[in-house]
Design goal:
The protein has two domains: about 240 residues, no CATH class; about 140 residues, Roll (Nuclear Transport Factor 2, Chain: A), CATH 3.10.450. Helix content is about 50%, strand content about 10%. A hairpin with a 2-residue loop joins strand 2 and strand 3. The protein is an alpha+beta fold. The protein has a five-stranded antiparallel sheet with strand order 1-2-3-4-5, covered by helices on one side.
């Protein structure tokens, strides 16, 4: 059994997550490709590779700083704010993190991300919003009790076949597949204090989310913004855990060997001649041929499918050797990567025709009110995954995919 197929996983580093490993493998494959086509894009791939490692390093550094205080890195945390607090001492970093949850607009955006993701969370939206009102009014004791009940009820309803609330889950149950919350200092680690039992009444102030002692009225002095903020932190981490439970059964099919494909392409004399004769050029929206290019059409179709959350159609554009059955699994993989990043709008800006079989499309993508410039790397391949010239039967497919790519 592979690491990706285990039912429970605790990752020593974010780089151990399957999504990070797969993305780095895609980048390595693309770097091999640049030996033959789009040679000038190799620095971009190296830059992208470094960015992926920075993303993973951010998660690891967060846990190294705050993991032992039982704070969890959930996927909706703003990276710029996290980068700032990583330079602080643990105590100051903790206060900086609490300040993020104290920001009404930011907290509201966190809440929106989870209440629309799960029906069981949507049903609890009124309670969550009441908890936010209490939190902003300084009624921290109420915030903690309400959010504990929300988490228990959500986890109980999320998996009807289990019907076990969060309080009935053990540490292994809270390990997640391919999620930053499943770092070895993440959710499962924090669940130990969550489940810790208390038998004697105590008026000593607590700063941990001791669910057992709090709910059973044993720990009485919990009225502070640390415990209340940890309740919010835990709610969003549990939502990420639930997402990981949904995607866990989807096991990616083995990817084609790019070394073999490139070797065959190199041996193709027609391909070699076309590569040697090719003159790279950039086509923009000002050029009459811009919208007529098949890659423009493919890009628009792909992004429109993303906007409609049609993950099955998006899967049809991914570069791979697949059967119909594995296409269905690939659709699940696309859903995993994209469902947390709804696309509000897009605009295709330019196409860099780097070779006869490779095109890089630049587009403006708007997600969560922010517009960013993205690069989509397309290659022309046959139904069996071999690169082929556009005048041959084939289809333009995405070489790298997923929001980070």
């Amino acid at each position: 059994m592979t690491d990706d197929q285990r039912t429970a996983e605790a990752y020593q580093s974010a780089l151990d997550l399957p999504s990070f490993r797969n993305l780095l493998e895609q980048i390595q494959a693309a770097k091999i490709l640049t030996r033959f086509v789009a040679r000038d894009k190799r620095p971009d791939l190296i830059r992208l590779e470094n960015e992926v490692k920075v993303m993973a390093g951010r998660v690891d550094r967060f846990y190294g700083l705050l993991g032992r205080r039982h704070w969890i890195f959930h996927e909706s945390l703003p990276t710029d704010a996290i980068d700032t607090l990583l330079s602080l001492s643990p105590a100051k970093a903790e206060r900086s993190l609490i300040a993020l949850y104290a920001d009404p607009e930011l907290l509201r955006s966190f809440i929106r991300m989870i209440v629309f993701r799960f029906p069981a969370m949507t049903a609890r939206r009124p309670l969550i919003e009441l908890a936010q009102e209490d939190f902003q009014a300084g009624r921290y004791y109420s915030t903690v009790h309400v959010l504990l009940s929300v988490m228990d009820g959500f986890v109980n309803e999320f998996e009807p076949q289990e019907r076990r609330g969060l309080h009935a889950r053990d540490e292994d149950d809270m390990k997640a597949w391919d999620s930053v919350v499943s770092h070895h200092l993440g959710l499962a680690n924090a669940h130990r204090t969550f489940m810790k039992r208390f038998s004697k009444t105590s008026n000593e102030e607590v700063f941990e989310l001791y669910r057992n002692g709090i709910v059973h009225g044993v720990l009485l002095n919990l009225h502070n913004d640390v415990v209340a903020s940890k309740a919010w932190n835990r709610l969003f981490a549990v939502a990420d855990w639930a997402t990981s439970r949904q995607k866990q059964p989807v096991i990616p099919e083995p990817e084609p060997s790019w070394r073999e494909l490139l070797a065959r392409a190199k041996e193709n004399q027609e391909m070699k001649k076309a590569l040697d004769a090719w003159m790279p050029r950039v086509v923009t929206e000002e050029d009459s041929s811009f919208t007529n290019h098949p890659v423009h059409a493919a890009t628009v179709d792909y992004l429109a499918a993303w906007q409609r959350r049609n993950y099955g159609k998006m899967a049809n554009f991914l570069a791979s050797i697949v059967t119909e059955q594995s296409r269905q699994k690939t659709a699940g993989m696309v859903r995993e990567q994209y469902e947390g990043f709804p696309l509000d709008g897009f605009l295709v800006r330019r196409m860099n025709l780097t070779s006869p079989v490779a095109v890089i499309v630049e587009a403006d993508l708007t997600t969560a009110g922010r517009t960013s410039r993205a690069a989509l790397r397309w290659i022309h391949e046959t139904s069996t995954g071999e690169m082929t010239l556009p005048n041959r039967p084939g289809q333009w497919r995405l070489l790298l995919w997923g929001p980070p790519a």
